[in-house]
Predict the 3D structure of the following.
Amino acid sequence: MIPPLERQALTAGPYRLTPLAQGDARDLLALFSDPAVAEFMDINPLVNFSEAREIVDWARDMAAGNRGLRWAIRRADDPRLIGTVGFNSLELERGRRGEVAYDLERAHWGRGVMSEILPYVMAFGFETLGLHRLEAMVTVGNIRSCKLLERQGFTLEGRLRDHAYWKGRFWDQLIYGRLAD
Ligand SMILES: CC(C)(COP(=O)(O)OP(=O)(O)OC[C@H]1O[C@@H](n2cnc3c(N)ncnc32)[C@H](O)[C@@H]1OP(=O)(O)O)[C@@H](O)C(=O)NCCC(=O)NCCS
């Protein structure tokens, strides 16, 4: 049994991770309206507040059903949301695996922020959720994401041809995996 995910906050070094809530929607709109942030994601850059609210609803439903969890990322000393991170899916019956996902405001790229946070998220997956395998799906071309995963000990396991469909076309995706030590 895993704990109720909708109430799971996490401290990740100097960062505070809290389950996405409707109060985060305005900051999410700012985050995901940046075309650079959305480039390799399954969304077009957001243009209105209701789209941000839908993302929060998706995250809250997932957490309420213990199917996944998406946290807002803030520095502990600053109320501004700077990104999100979490588990897009969890398989706890026919496996023990979770898919990690993450994003940061562009102003915070290139400083090791996600590299600092991800070990805490991975430890939460392996220890609190009892996962055996973490995976990540990366759209081909998202080099920053590949480098981040490789630094965290993920292995490139393959290229899934036309694995995703969004923005009117199919996309190849890379699958990365890391097993519990
Ligand atoms: C994916 C994403 C989070 C990666 O961000 P990032 O800042 O490159 O990742 P990291 O936190 O690992 O930082 C690494 C960078 O910080 C630098 N850095 C500085 N201090 C560091 C430290 N202590 N540890 C690691 N890296 C450090 C590294 O040199 C590297 O910079 P470089 O690529 O210019 O060499 C970011 O590009 C993003 O939000 N993209 C949009 C959303 C997205 O595509 N999400 C992924 C979907 S699969």
Notes: The chain has a mean pLDDT of 97.
